[in-house]
């Protein structure tokens, strides 16, 4: 990995297929618990969307560079707030896709 790659801000495009009938519950969990906790632990949520069929939840979270992703995720997942949620996020999600992306203007 080059020095430039280490210094480039990166994002994760995350696409979750939400279990049938659980989108409203998922949105409540995401906006009231997951998003604030991500931001508290230094993982900003850039934006989020729901597809027209309301079966997929799409969101983007950002990191300073690829080198910090694992440490930031470890910090978030081991936080008291995330531990208190237990498997609530997992029971909503049927499928997860994650793509690491970088801006084209860097």
Automatic annotation (TrEMBL):
InterPro entries assigned: Dimeric_a/b-barrel
Organism placement in taxonomy: unclassified sequences, metagenomes, ecological metagenomes
Protein's organism: marine metagenome
Name of the protein described by the UniProt record: NIPSNAP domain-containing protein
């Amino acid at each position: 990995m080059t020095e430039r790659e280490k210094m480039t801000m990166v994002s994760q495009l995350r696409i979750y297929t939400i279990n049938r009938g659980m989108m409203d519950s998922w949105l409540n969990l995401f906006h009231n618990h997951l998003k604030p906790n991500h931001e508290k632990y230094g993982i900003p949520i850039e934006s989020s969307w729901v597809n027209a069929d309301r079966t997929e939840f799409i969101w983007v979270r950002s990191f300073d560079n690829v080198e910090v992703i694992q440490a930031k995720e470890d910090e978030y997942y081991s936080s008291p707030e995330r531990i208190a949620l237990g498997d609530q996020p997992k029971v909503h999600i049927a499928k997860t896709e994650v793509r690491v992306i970088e801006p084209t203007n860097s």
